[in-house]
Design brief:
The chain is mainly alpha-helical. It contains four helices and two strands. 42% of the residues lie in helices and 9% in strands. It has a two-stranded antiparallel ribbon. The chain is globular. The mean pLDDT is 87.
């Protein structure tokens, strides 16, 4: 059941995961397609590789502060493609 749920989420959303340092550890097919990068190009890179300059660093400070306090962060983020 968990595997089906995971596949449904990954197939219907743009998903990337990072470690606590912001290094990409996972990117699903949709994230790769939208970013224009292959999975091999993304894994091991700082997530800033896709950050659009219109998005202020303050947004990402709030994101990390929220995540590190184990709360949920919800926002629309503009990335480069």
């Amino acid at each position: 059941m968990f595997k089906q749920y995971k596949e449904a989420i990954e197939n219907s959303n743009i998903v990337s995961k990072t470690d606590i340092y912001g290094i990409i550890t996972f990117a699903n097919d949709e994230f790769c397609k939208i970013s224009g990068y292959s999975r091999d190009e993304l894994i091991g890179q700082d997530h800033n590789i896709v950050r659009h300059p219109d998005i202020s660093t303050d947004n990402f400070r709030r994101l990390w502060q929220t995540i590190l306090t184990k709360n949920t962060y919800r926002a629309t983020v503009k990335n480069l493609a």
